[in-house]
Amino acid sequence: MMEPLERNVAAELARFDASPGLAAVVDAWPEAVGPDIARNAWPARLSRGGTLVVHTSSAAWAFELGHLEGRIRTLLPAAGLAKLRFVVGPLPEPTPRVDERRPHDFEPSHAELERGAVLAAPIRDEKLRKVVAKAAALSVARAASDRSL
Question: Taking the domains of the chain in order of start, what are their residue ranges?
């Protein structure tokens, strides 16, 4: 029988004095504080005394959020938070929004792949021809997508 992963993770976190309550705070953080604050401040650790240390992108953010500490604390799950402390520190890398598409996110259609093959046909080297055909198809797909905006 397999044990739930959550129990194992909590046990490992406890070995390093990490509070399992931090996971609930991290899960709730973006929705509780909103996207602007979540981009510039992130929960880093929860001390034994119940102080949540929040890393911020700058001293200005730490200062401003310090004034909102009581209000922010009420928006978070009751994980024994006594207070919040905002300090400049590393933030997690932002994840791209679902609606943000980068060039390598495009999958060319069959017609775009054929167009790429036609454009690359004069190239004699087979490997190079395939690479150029794929690049051309992606370029055509990207151009078509950009026009739809």
Answer: 5-88, 103-147
The residue among 70, 68, 8, 77 whose CA lies nearest residue 46 is: 77
> CA end-to-end span of the chain, whole Å?
52
Confidence of residue 66 (pLDDT cuts 50, 70, 90): very high
- Find the length of the chain: 149
Q: Is the pTM of this model over 0.90?
A: no
- C-alpha gyration radius of the chain: 24
Tens of pLDDT, residue by residue over 113-135, are 999 899 889 988 888 889 889 88
Model confidence pLDDT, tens digit, residues 5-35: 666 655 655 555 555 678 888 889 999 999 9
Residue 54 contacts residue 42 (beta carbons within 8 Å): yes
| Contact (Cβ atoms closer than 8 angstroms) between residue 69 and residue 83 | yes
C-beta separation of 108 from 136 below 8 A:
no
**Cα torsion 64, 43, 91, 17: sign:** positive
